[in-house]
Design a protein that fits this description.
By secondary structure, the chain is mostly helical. Helix content is 46%, strand content 11%. The chain has a two-stranded antiparallel ribbon. Helix 1 crosses helix 2.
């Protein structure tokens, strides 16, 4: 499930009430799992929601 926003970094950042650069920093620091596909990051919606609830 990608959620209402379509699954991009900026949409997930909006769900977390933060900015895209802040989300990227959290991902690169290992705060939430993601997979890299080329220059893109894939973040599972449930992982975003788990981080949001924390």
């Amino acid at each position: 499930m990608l959620g209402l926003c379509g699954g991009g970094d900026h949409c997930h950042a909006d769900l977390l009430n933060g900015s895209q650069p802040h989300l990227v920093k959290l991902l690169e620091e290992g705060e939430s799992p993601f997979s890299g596909v080329g220059t893109h990051r894939r973040i599972r919606f449930q992982d975003v929601m788990r981080h949001r609830a924390a």
